Amino acid sequence: MNRGRLDILIVGGGIAGCCAAIALTQNGHRVRIVEKENAWRFQSSGIFVYANGLVSLDKLGLLDDILAAGFPVPGGRNAYFDHTGAAIVETIYPTADGGRIPAILGIRRAEMHRVMTARIAALGVPVQLGTNVRGLEDVAGGVLVDLSDGTQVRTNLVIGADGVRSATRAMIGIDVAPRYTGFGVWRAVHRRPADLTDKIMVMGPAKRFGIMPISDDLLYTFGTLAEPKDHHYEPATWPETMAAKFAEFQGPAARFLADLHAGAEVLYTAVEEVVLPLPWHRGRVLLIGDAAHASTPFMGQGGAMAMQDAVVLAQAIEARETLGEALDVFGAARLPVCQFVQDVSRSVGEAGAREVEGDIEARNAEMRDGAQAKVDGFYGRLAELDAEAEAKLAV
Predict the structure, then answer these.
(1) 88 vs 68: CA distance, rounded Å
(2) Across the strands, what pairs with 96?
(3) Please, which contacts does 350-354 make with residues 24 or more away whose CB atoms are closer than 8 Å?
């Protein structure tokens, strides 16, 4: 077993980097984070985390604080409507640990990072903001890292958790660029009516509009649809543009679209994927999170995959004699899980994008007959892949 304590540099302070810092520090490693932003700045729209992601947060000792900061959906309910406001079906997501861990939680991204960075501070992890990595050089037993402040750091392991456009990925010679998926996501934050407690999805032809509580007071909405490649929308126009993009949506969506006035908190992002073959490391430099496997948002699993990366990496380092073996087994354990999520999410998005008005009645009937079975099938298969990953770690 690998009992040596490592010096580890993490590049990036997002979900993947923060969770990796917590997991590895809790195992006794000496960890530091460098983050290019001068201050903790995170997109302040919402995120939802299903039970598999909450399991990882539980292992990191974050679950109670995350639950307190967010909004667990009662009963794990997801209510579906079509764009005319007609109810389609309701599905229930699975809980974990006999119901102790809820099925789905909504939370403001800034609140999630507040909880994570508070834990990092409590663990004494040094964080160097406003700092980039300028160069990486293999040396005996480690990596020599040139930082943008002019200093050099010698470390046993570098973890690139620096997102879709990872500079670390390019530095280690992995020539894989993010792929534009053809979709854009519009997000907005609103006051939460007291009676709105479910996750809601409104299904339009080739468009989706979601509503998710993220606290006792707030919810966020998110709309997905096909968008031209490289099209730029001026941020000042985002509220009116989002309202116009989904103007035909009635039912639960209508009151929130009407709330999109000038000055409303709206965010637009183009959706990109990163699909890397193994290995996800070169020597002692490893990629995790979106730097290795960014996904489309249609299954809501991007954050959960980053959280699980952190937990599995810490387990792999403890389970193997050498760091090289640990990084190999980490990739072997994680690739099938992340690839499954990416493939299903991509398929769901592409199927939705092909819809036309005349498909809606047949789609609604199909959802009534099979939506719960699809939910159960997805999470059942995910659990099987997680079990297979655990077996690889144990070998």
Answers:
(1) 31
(2) 101
(3) 352/203, 352/206, 352/207, 352/208, 352/224, 352/298, 353/182, 353/183, 353/206, 353/225, 353/226, 354/206
Whether the bond between 279 and the residue before it is cis, its omega within 30 degrees of 0, is yes
Euclidean distance between CA atoms 20 and 74, whole angstroms: 30
The percent of residues above 70 in pLDDT, for the chain, comes to 98
Strand partners, 319: none
Residues 253 and 210: their CA atoms lie apart, in Å, by 8
Two structure tokens written together for 199: 């996750």
Q: E strand or H helix at 378, and its extent?
A: helix 360-394
128: closest CA among 265, 204, 246, 17?
17
DSSP-derived 3-state class of residue 321 = coil
pLDDT for 44: 67
The C-alpha atoms of residue 327 and residue 335 are separated, in whole angstroms, by 12
Beta strands 285-287 and 127-129, pairing class: unpaired
Q: CA 89 → CA 103, 203, 212, 246, 343, distances in Å? A: 18, 11, 17, 21, 24
Burial of 1 (0-12, 13-18, 19+ CB in 10 A): exposed
Q: Give the pTM.
A: 0.96
